[in-house]
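Minutes, structural biology subgroup

Action item carried over from last meeting: produce the structure token record for Pyridoxal 5'-phosphate synthase subunit PdxT (Jiangella asiatica). EB confirmed the sequence was re-checked against the source entry. Recorded below for completeness.
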Amino acid sequence: QPTVGVLALQGDVREHQRVLTGLGAATLAVRTPGELDRVDALIIPGGESTTMWRLARTFGLLEPLRQRVASGMPAYGSCAGMIMLADRIEGGVTGQETIGGMDVTVRRNAFGRQVDSFEADLDFPALGATVPPLRAVFIRAPWVEKVGDGVDVLARVATGASAGRIVAVRQGPLLATSFHPELTGDARVHALFLDIVKEA
Ligand code: GLN
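Output recorded by EB:
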């Protein structure tokens, strides 16, 4: 049975581990290159991408993370984790780096100040049944500004000022969402990721 790591430098690590455990997956908090070596797949949680980037450098994890992702390790990033998996970001702080791997441009804090946090129901056909829709929690969330040819768009905002904005993407073994499925008690996105892990 594969071990799914959760990058535990910063952010909502325990919430992801709880969902994984609930689905019967083995999980490990990853803070060191040695711990990264022991996992078959990795979740990068929500939090603050600038802090996560700085800590990843300090802990000597940035290059090992890049190597694992480049060599095909399945990874799922939510919110700040989506930013970390993007090849290109907009609205980053000076010098901000990512792990990369997904051929996307992600805009940080894209939904603007007036809606720092909001919830929305999403149509997410890759989850199988489209009923019920996925309740998504967005917290100072990014959106995907541009996608490369190999990237599948899995969900977009349905209504309102941001209608049509891309908030979930997949490229091979890499999955990313703008929102936080670990906060809603709906395990379908994590179940999708575990399917991707088993496929890989
Ligand atoms: N705004 C944060 C960032 O830029 C992401 C917020 C989140 O993960 N909830 O990293």
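Discussion: The radius of gyration is 15 Å.
Next step: EB to file the record with the rest of the batch.
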